[in-house]
Every structure is written in C-alpha cells, then in structure tokens.
Amino acid sequence: MASIVANLPPPLLVNGRRPLLRTLRKFTVSAIGERELRVAVVAKATGESSESSTSLSVVQSVQDVWDKSEDRFALIGLGFAAIVALWASANLITAIDKLPLIPSALEFIGILFSSWFIYRYLLFRPDREELFETINKSVSDILGQ
Length: 145
Known about the structure:
Its main location: membrane. It comes from Davidia involucrata (Dove tree). Residues 61-144 form the Cyanobacterial aminoacyl-tRNA synthetase CAAD domain. The chain is of the alpha+beta class and 145 residues long. Helix content is 63%, strand content 12%. The protein is built from five helices and three strands, in the order βαββαααα. The protein has helices at residues 19-23, 50-68, 72-98, 102-122, 125-143; strands spanning 2-8, 28-31, 39-45. The chain has a three-stranded antiparallel sheet, with no helix packed on it. β2 and β3 form a beta hairpin. The radius of gyration is 25 Å and the shape is extended.
C-alpha cells in the first residue's frame, strides 16, 4: 500500500475564482489546523504499481539472458568493463571540470546547442512532427520492428 501526502500552496486563483477547491472535492481534503492558507491532499493507492511491474520485467529479462548464455565468463567481463568505463568517464568529467575556462566554454557551447535545437525542432509544429517521426523511426530500428 502506498501513500502520498502533499502540502499545497494557497488555492490557485484564476480570474479571482478558486477552481482548485471545486476539483478537489473528489479527493480527501482537510485544512491544516484552522488556517486556510494551505490544503493537505492525501492519496492512497493499493495494488500493484506499474513501476514495480516494469522493474520485475527488467529483472526477469536479465535472468533470461543469464540463463540462455553459454559464455557466462564473457558476460561477467562485459559487466565489469561497463563499470570500469562508467568510473573512468566520471573521473574524466571531474578532471575536465577542474580545468580553468573549459567548464565555462562547454557551458556556453551547451547553451548555444540547446538554443539551436529549440529553434530547429521545438518551436514550430512541422518541425516537432519531423522530430517525432525521426525518434519513432530510430526506436523502431533499434527494436527491429
């Protein structure tokens, strides 16, 4: 059983009205203390969450690969190489970050690239559709569909 408790700020006002309180009647709502400055919302869920089912499917797929593998020594070596590569890349990024002017230059390049990406793919509807088509094509190529 999972529980979520949230303290919300004062009710949202849209044109002087309070639409948030009207929509919260479906949920368990109680005022904190005697003040009306904050509203507490408690949501409780029972049953299987989608997050745990996906983690179980990932674990199951890893177990299937391990069981089907004939060369387990190579899988262990591949896992060790992945851990070493992750450690080395983290240390490389830390070393680059300590150099003077390099972090600022890389940050500026990142801002320029992000601005170009937003202008090229996200600003206009036809460009967004082109981006979605490219992403869907890449995903289908990777999954072999």
